[in-house]
Specification:
Layout: H1 3-21, H2 23-43, H3 49-75, H4 82-87, H5 93-123, H6 130-156, H7 161-172, H8 174-188, H9 196-223
Helix pairs in contact: 1-5, 2-3, 2-5, 3-5, 3-6, 3-7, 3-8, 5-6, 5-9, 6-7, 6-8, 6-9, 8-9
């Protein structure tokens, strides 16, 4: 069984658990929507400001909601000694990382589609540069999911993981939020050529995060025992 087939098994397990529990649908997506609504009310006196700050608010909402997804990804391993079963399964550590990161990324993509519609409706944003926006979203999501999964396993065995995950993840993914915001700003301003360099930086960050996760996840999972 190769690494990618093992990764599909892990991703399928996590996604089936989420589909049955509906935590992402009933809690994480509404949380992201509430964040957008709060921002809209906070800036409502100056309606002209909302379209200009929409990219930054979008990625801030995604980042905050992603912390819930990452914490959830590892909390499901707590029940019935599932984490020990994962260690003893014989699956490659890199495959476990890829599977869990892929599951988180797919949930984030669903969240981003919903939040994207929310931004258009609430912030009166005119969508331009769809290709740039789509590429930025995919690359930034991979970077967020991979980075979050690495730090998630680092904090998984600690009692205070609910507070440690944000403390560890937020500084690490600041370049992702910055790059995503700048690329979206360029796309919405009708200047996609200014956004592609940011996509390249995001892609480099995503590759580094994935490689680091594949190499480090197995040892980190064992140390968590």
């Amino acid at each position: 069984m190769n690494m990618f087939r093992e990764a599909l098994l892990v991703a399928g397990k996590d996604l089936r658990i989420e589909a049955r529990s509906r935590v992402a649908l009933q809690q994480i997506v509404p949380f992201g929507g509430i964040v957008l609504i709060v921002f809209a009310f906070a800036l409502d006196p100056d309606r002209g400001l909302l379209p200009r700050v929409a990219p930054g608010l979008f990625w801030t909402a995604v980042l905050l909601a992603s912390l819930l997804s990452i914490t959830r990804s590892f909390s499901i391993e707590e029940a019935n000694g599932a984490r020990d079963g994962l260690r003893l399964s014989g699956l490659d550590g890199g495959a476990i990382f890829l599977g869990k990161a892929a599951a988180v990324a797919l949930q984030l993509l669903l969240l981003e589609v919903v939040l994207g519609f929310g931004v258009v409706v609430l912030y009166d944003v005119s969508v331009r540069g769809v290709v740039l926006i789509a590429c930025t979203t995919v690359v930034a999501t991979v970077a967020l999911a991979a980075t979050g999964t690495v730090y998630g396993v680092l904090a998984a065995g600690l009692r205070a993981r609910e507070t440690l995950v944000p403390l560890l993840v937020l500084p690490a993914v600041t370049p992702v939020v910055l790059g995503g915001t700048r690329a979206f700003e360029a796309a919405l301003a009708g200047a996609p050529s200014d956004g592609w360099p940011w996509v390249q930086l995001l892609a480099a960050f995503a590759v580094l995060a994935v490689v680091a996760g594949v190499l480090a996840f197995g040892p980190l999972l064992e140390e968590d025992s």
